[in-house]
Design goal:
It is built from 7 helices and 9 strands, in the order E-E-E-H-E-H-E-H-E-H-E-E-H-H-E-H. By secondary structure, it is of the alpha/beta class.
């Protein structure tokens, strides 16, 4: 990691890390490039992070990296290619963490296949971190934790060591977390064709 460290006594920036390296094998097509309201899901996630004020916004690429990079054209994001993306999401999770500059005190993980996440939801996650100085801020949909999830820098070593990625860190540090409760209906993870059909029927955020 490079860059200027945050000055003592002040909170540094909060980075956004969009995990966009998967092969979408269960869907049968590259879900990162599926369009919602005329916009590919990967671009929508990156735009959400930017609109929420995350800086920098790092997008971890892997499967069909050139096509995904093209979908991000014109956005002020930092693409980072994960050559080990076939090993699964935890490897991309680690690649994203390593790319976070030292000036950042925390990062927020976002997934392109969760298009119901809004900039306001991400901004509220950051606000809770700044207000409470918790090392972890989780979003809980009904009973299920899912992104956006904020991890403070103090958790980065545990994140890099986690074999299961973010869910392992959330499980082990949940007692120290601030939790934002959301309706279960806002949780949509586009993994299967039925999920894609639901996405196309419903308006995000409703």
């Amino acid at each position: 990691m490079t860059g200027e460290r945050a000055r003592p006594g002040r909170l540094g920036d909060v980075a956004g890390v969009v995990l966009a390296a998967g092969s979408s094998s269960r869907l049968g097509e590259n879900k990162l490039l599926v369009e919602l309201e005329g916009e590919p899901l990967v671009r929508r996630a990156a735009s959400t992070a930017l609109a929420a004020g995350l800086a920098p916004v790092i997008v971890v690429l892997g499967h069909e990296a050139d096509r995904v990079r093209a979908a991000l054209e014109g956005l002020p994001v930092t693409p980072v290619e994960n050559p080990r993306h076939v090993e699964g999401m935890p490897s991309s999770f680690r690649a994203g963490i390593r790319a976070v500059p030292d000036r950042c005190d925390a990062l927020v993980i976002l997934l392109p296949d969760m298009p119901f996440v809004t900039p306001a939801m991400v901004a509220e996650t950051v606000d809770r971190y700044r207000a409470e100085s918790r090392p972890l801020v989780i979003t809980v949909y009904g009973d299920t934790p899912a992104p956006p999830t904020l991890y403070a820098r103090s958790l980065f070593p545990a994140m890099l060591a986690a074999r299961e990625g973010g869910r392992e860190v959330v499980r082990e540090h949940r007692a120290a977390a601030a939790a934002i409760r959301r309706p279960a209906g806002l949780l949509l993870d586009v993994d299967h064709p039925a999920d894609l059909e639901r996405l196309r029927r419903e308006q995000p955020g409703t």
